[in-house]
Amino acid sequence: MTDPIRILLVEDEEINNYIATRLIQKALPGAVVTSCLHGKQAISLLTKIKQDASKLPDFILLDINMPVMNGWEFLDDYSRLKIDPEGASAIFILSSSVFSEDISRAKSYSEVKGFICKPLNVTKIRELFDAKEAV
């Protein structure tokens, strides 16, 4: 029996978290979704579990524009704190931004594996899972 897929959703809109969680569970039955409302909350959670890489999420879906700590600040802390030196988590920017500057900036972080434009849907989620499995 394989472990369930673990996904950390970092998004400041509670309704978006609810919808994304439902879509993820539809696309990937059995997936375990944890959500945080801003980057600081996510960093705190990841810092607590980073000693055991098996507990790190398989995917982190990260919004850019959030209060308290935005996605860029999250990525800077994530790297600085060496939360996942083995690269167990695939980070995808999940944003409604279509600015080429944001897409280029996302590519400048080695931890970021892709940029997903909102809204999230079942097809996009399955494509992410398939891409991870192919690696």
CATH hierarchy, class of the domain at 62-120: Alpha Beta
CATH topology of the domain at 62-120: Rossmann fold
Major β-sheet strand ordering: 2-1-3-4-5
DSSP summary: helix tally: 5
Please state roughly what percent of the residues sit in beta strands, choosing from under 5%, 5-15%, 15-25%, 25-35%, 35-45% or over 45%. 15-25%
Q: Which structural class do you get from the secondary structure elements?
A: alpha/beta
- C-alpha termini separation: 20 Å
Q: Give the % helix.
A: 40-55%
Shape call? globular
Largest sheet: 5 strands, parallel
Poorly predicted regions: none
Strand tally is: 5
N to C succession of SSEs = EHEHEHEHEH
CATH architecture of the domain at 62-120: 3-Layer(aba) Sandwich
Mean pLDDT: 89
- CATH level 4 superfamily of the domain at 62-120: Response regulator
Rg estimate, integer Å: 14 Å
Q: What's a quick, concise take on this entry?
A:
By secondary structure, this protein is of the alpha/beta class. 41% of the residues lie in helices and 19% in strands. It is globular, with a radius of gyration of 14 Å.
Commentary on this structure:
The protein has a domain at 62-120: 3-Layer(aba) Sandwich (Rossmann fold). The protein is 41% helix and 19% strand. It has five helices and five strands. The protein has helices at residues 14-27, 39-49, 71-80, 100-107, 122-134, and strands at 6-10, 32-36, 59-62, 90-95, 112-117. A five-stranded parallel beta sheet has the order 2-1-3-4-5, sandwiched between helices. Helix 4 links the parallel strand 4 (90-95) and strand 5. Helix 1 (14-27) packs across helix 5 (122-134) and helix 2 (39-49) packs parallel to helix 3 (71-80). The longest helix is centred in the N-terminal third of the chain and has 14 residues, at 14-27. It is globular and about 35 Å long.
